[in-house]
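Summary of Year 1 activities. Much of the first year was spent building the evaluation harness for sequence design. The harness presents a backbone, in tokenized form, and records the residue chosen at every position. We chose the following record to illustrate the format because it has been used consistently in internal testing since the harness was completed.
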């Protein structure tokens, strides 16, 4: 019972607190000014997710560390993406550092996934292959029409594209695993889809560099926090049903 309380109460508190913060800055229309007053707060939320990941790691008897590593690199990516003055001092476009950090985080998520299920077990039949191909091709098309900006750094554009492929591959794995086994795998599907939504919004605003709605940072962040929490809960539950059974 205590486990379920932790798994629900902490994510609810994090997302609810962010929603309250969002309400307090609703009158500010300039996204850059919103970022200036919020970047420290957002990094604080990122740290809370890291603490949540560490807590689940300890509850899981320190057997399943990859999600914790993924969240740690995600927090590093948040520091770059929030464009703190120190990040700008050492990197012309801090977003590039954010992309690299999140790419590493996705690799750790993939390693966590691979620890739970083998490729042979997952890719049985044609359906999972088709799903994976669709999840890779469709976002690539969206990237071309909604994210790509020839005026932006080629490094940023190329890195964002490659990162998108890695993320979409991870999303396809979660969907395929849920279609194969159902149950608690749904938490990973929800988390992965929210992650994709968060990065899609960031892609066509911050990464593109031409679109700056007032919610430029708030929509990606609240969907990102939801994604991280669902992924952590999902990996915790799935690891307990599969790793502890062996």
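For this record, the design step produced the sequence shown next.
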């Amino acid at each position: 019972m205590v486990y379920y309380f932790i798994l629900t109460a902490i994510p609810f508190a994090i997302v609810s607190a962010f929603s309250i913060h969002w309400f307090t800055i609703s009158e500010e229309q300039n996204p850059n000014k919103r970022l200036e007053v919020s970047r420290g707060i957002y990094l604080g939320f990122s740290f809370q997710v890291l603490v949540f990941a560490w807590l689940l790691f300890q509850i899981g008897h320190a057997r399943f560390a990859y999600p914790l590593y993924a969240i740690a690199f995600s927090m590093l990516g948040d520091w770059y993406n929030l464009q703190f003055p120190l990040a700008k001092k050492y990197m012309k476009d801090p977003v590039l550092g954010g992309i690299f950090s999140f790419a590493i985080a996705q690799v750790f998520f993939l390693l966590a996934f691979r620890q739970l299920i083998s490729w042979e077990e997952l890719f049985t039949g044609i359906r999972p292959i088709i799903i994976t191909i669709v999840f890779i091709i469709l976002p690539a098309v969206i990237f071309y029409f909604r994210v790509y900006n020839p005026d932006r750094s080629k490094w940023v554009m190329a890195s964002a594209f490659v990162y998108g492929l890695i993320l979409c591959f991870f999303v396809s794995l979660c969907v395929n695993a849920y279609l194969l086994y159902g149950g608690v795998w749904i938490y990973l599907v929800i988390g992965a889809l929210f992650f994709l939504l968060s990065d899609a919004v960031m892609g066509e605003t911050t990464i593109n560099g031409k679109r700056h709605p007032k919610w430029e940072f708030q929509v990606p962040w609240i969907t990102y926090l939801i994604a991280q929490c669902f992924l952590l809960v999902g990996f915790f539950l799935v690891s307990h049903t599969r790793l502890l059974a062996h």
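Residues 172 and 234 are 15 Å apart (CA to CA). Quantitative recovery figures across the full test set are reported in Table 2.
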